[in-house]
């Protein structure tokens, strides 16, 4: 029997792994929200929601969170912080 495939979640923007950073957020499943996230992160819009991709919590400002303790984003949260070069 084949062993289960392990998958390491990475931040699309900075490439850090989930175990290095704590919390990764999925792209929104709503098409327009996903488009807005892609534009804010200076990505070329793909026409897809990118639901399978993740963004590290540090790409969001503090006011984008309902509860920082459980990492819950506001419904209208948009990543705005680019990683340092």
Automatic annotation (TrEMBL):
The residue ranges crossing the membrane are none
Q: What GO molecular-function term can you cite, just one?
A: zinc ion binding
Residue stretches making up the THAP-type domain: 23-81
Tell me which UniProt keywords the record has, alphabetically. DNA-binding, Metal-binding, Zinc, Zinc-finger
- List the InterPro entries: THAP_Znf (IPR006612)
Q: What is this protein called?
A: THAP-type domain-containing protein
- Source species, please? Hypothenemus hampei
Q: What is the lineage of its organism?
A: Eukaryota, Metazoa, Ecdysozoa, Arthropoda, Hexapoda
């Amino acid at each position: 029997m084949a062993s289960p495939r392990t998958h390491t979640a990475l931040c699309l923007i900075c490439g850090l792994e989930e175990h290095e950073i704590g919390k990764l957020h999925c792209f929104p499943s709503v098409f327009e929200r996903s488009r807005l996230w892609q534009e804010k992160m200076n990505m070329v819009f793909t026409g897809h929601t990118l639901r399978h991709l993740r963004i590290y919590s540090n790409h969001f400002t503090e006011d984008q969170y309902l509860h920082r303790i459980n990492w819950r984003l506001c419904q209208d949260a948009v990543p705005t912080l680019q990683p340092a070069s």
